[in-house]
TrEMBL record:
<dbReference type="GO" id="GO:0004252">
    <property type="term" value="F:serine-type endopeptidase activity"/>
</dbReference>
<dbReference type="Pfam" id="PF00089">
    <property type="entry name" value="Trypsin"/>
</dbReference>
<dbReference type="GO" id="GO:0006508">
    <property type="term" value="P:proteolysis"/>
</dbReference>
<feature type="signal peptide">
    <location>
        <begin position="1"/>
        <end position="20"/>
    </location>
</feature>
<dbReference type="InterPro" id="IPR001254">
    <property type="entry name" value="Trypsin_dom"/>
</dbReference>
<feature type="domain" description="Peptidase S1">
    <location>
        <begin position="105"/>
        <end position="298"/>
    </location>
</feature>
<dbReference type="InterPro" id="IPR050966">
    <property type="entry name" value="Glutamyl_endopeptidase"/>
</dbReference>
<keyword id="KW-0732">Signal</keyword>
<dbReference type="InterPro" id="IPR043504">
    <property type="entry name" value="Peptidase_S1_PA_chymotrypsin"/>
</dbReference>
<protein>
    <submittedName>
        <fullName>V8-like Glu-specific endopeptidase</fullName>
    </submittedName>
</protein>
<dbReference type="InterPro" id="IPR009003">
    <property type="entry name" value="Peptidase_S1_PA"/>
</dbReference>
Amino acid sequence: MRKGQMRWTVAVVASTGVVAAGAGAVVHSRTNPPVRQAADVAVPLQVSAAEADQTERYWTARRMTAAAPVAGRALQPQVGARAAAPRGVPTAKAFGGVRTIGALFFTTQDKRDHYCTASVIASNSRRLLLTAAHCIHGGKGHGYVRNVAFVPKYDRGRAPYGVWTARSALVYSGWQKRGDPDLDFGFVTINPRKGRNIQSVVGAYRLGINRGTGLWVNVAGNPKATWDRRDRPIWCRVKTKRQSRYQIRMDCGGFYGGTSGSPWILNYNPRNNTGYVNGVLGGYQGGGNTHYTSYSPYFDKDIHNLRKLADSRA
């Protein structure tokens, strides 16, 4: 492989527990997952065609470069330098990025420009992105963000696959009303571009639910250049751990601000850039108070049901 390309180990998908039912297929666990109370869906964000056109014009290369990471993962190096991870903890590697993962740009209610990381998720509509809920809705006392746009394989102000605007966004009311970290995930529906849907252009990962922990995942994101002088997307292959009943964690250095929403990809195949997203960087502590320990809500029926609803409304 070329230098800088992800050297993600090929994992074999287990023959049991896989539901292969069309574009929205998910992979299930063979064990009984934890059960939480049913989550109610919040009122979605709806974006008009005129607003979408304005958003596409808004996100110039200069504005994208100037955008700051969202406050949910307000991480920065200590004493103006990149703080080292503890001994034995791996550090993420820089690479050229993949087209199914990119930067999600938006403007918060205080009219400041921010960004997170998001990934394309397989769906019947072929229009869905997955990210952390705190990247698209401010939680208790706040509302949805505006000027939402996705740039696949974003790299240093460049948009090799164009700027894709949002049509809608959806989170659970538990996040909207309480900022529940166990529901810190959400979906964005993307408008077609030049007559084609996002999944048709860049591909997509499938959704993995109820898989437990102790699994190898590949995590990729876009840290802010101010905090990572390499100014490139990063990736890390690491095992998940159980943090709490509805939270999982991974330990890998380099996941500074900008990596909120980064997908945790199970059974990644580097030959065709496929796999199952089993988590997103978010949840407990907004995703983590250090760059070397990150969290994700546990993926179960709640995220599966939210994806299904977002897809039906796309």
